[in-house]
């Protein structure tokens, strides 16, 4: 009898949850999009006056860095095939297209005050015009990892003079395209740029200043973000009527075991990873726990000053509230627990955080990228966490997606889209989160950094063995198109 009641109760629960979800729709002003970045799709790496980026330089000097020894020299050849891309976007029905502007294509030598490459300007200018002609809003990332190599030669993001170089580049693109671009993202994923680029050495420029580079780079990058945000506010916002944010990546962390210590570990790793960049942009400083831990660990290590630099009062004021929206890149969830002191090498970001984040074998893992796990509820919890902690700022999901191998029948990507968009709907309708849009990564299969072309993340397959880089929509393209069209989920 009891068993019978249990089954009935759970059937009722499933039906209620299902019917509630199918009655929800995405708000009218909710933006649907797809995302990409210059180095990953454009190709034409040495054409029309473009300068050399840290990715061109690193992968030509050391092809073994990438699993299939590939690089972005040709990529999807979007520099030549952009008209086809726009047709794919138009047919998909997206409201926005997120792409990045290649710094060395606009300012080949990188330096503040140096020559602007007219051919690069023309390329983006025409592209923006054509997007607008199809009613697709450009969502422009100013910096998505392709730093001019010249700037790296003087230290890159570790040298504070880069702030002025970045400002020159950013202001140049705002002056050139801001009459038509109304949505700006200053940086894509500061954590990846700094921790993997300058501390762990697993992304360009592949430097290994463990536990030091990550914070120096983040500090310079955050100041550059704050300065361009204030410049934009002061000089362009009223006339151009645009908005500006930053795209920060974050997973969600569940406690490894159901106990207070692991719950605390999950909170701590979130404050270290997401908090390192989000907290300053919202509050003006790093999370207190980061400051306390890094200051005291640095002291114990014998450093005369903390490895985490300090903001001046003026910088704090500049940074506080330096956003119109928060861009959130989210792919996965992990299990968190505190680790013993000898678990990580010192100095390092991981040691400073004191927490390990590992996969959960019972969650679905991507076959192409095993660390990526499909946990839609993680996105919902992350959105609620941001809402509760930071007075519900507007959040634009600037990336979310799923890694597969080749093939048009991408059922797992469809599960990802339905699952994560269900989580977004619940976050909006049941939790009151201000999610203003969702931009899927990515329109096309593209150069997935160290995963080369083996990892596929597109709604559209690209044949990288064909010089034409033929594009063929996958099953997920049709599913996403239907969702955009109905503004509902068919779940
Ligand atoms: C990056 C993209 C990348 C995507 C999928 C994000 O971290 O912003 O450039 O392709 O993840 O791996």
UniProtKB/TrEMBL annotation:
Keyword Signal: yes
Family matches, as SUPFAM superfamilies: (Trans)glycosidases (SSF51445)
Recorded GO MF terms: beta-glucosidase activity
One GO biological process term: carbohydrate metabolic process
Sorted UniProt keywords: Glycoprotein, Glycosidase, Hydrolase, Signal
InterPro entries: GH, GH_1_N_CS, Glyco_hydro_1
Signal peptide: 1-19
Keyword Cytoplasm attached: no
Stated family: Belongs to the glycosyl hydrolase 1 family.
Subunit comment: Homodimer.
Full protein name: Beta-glucosidase
Species name: Henosepilachna vigintioctopunctata
Phylogenetic placement of the source organism: Eukaryota, Metazoa, Ecdysozoa, Arthropoda, Hexapoda
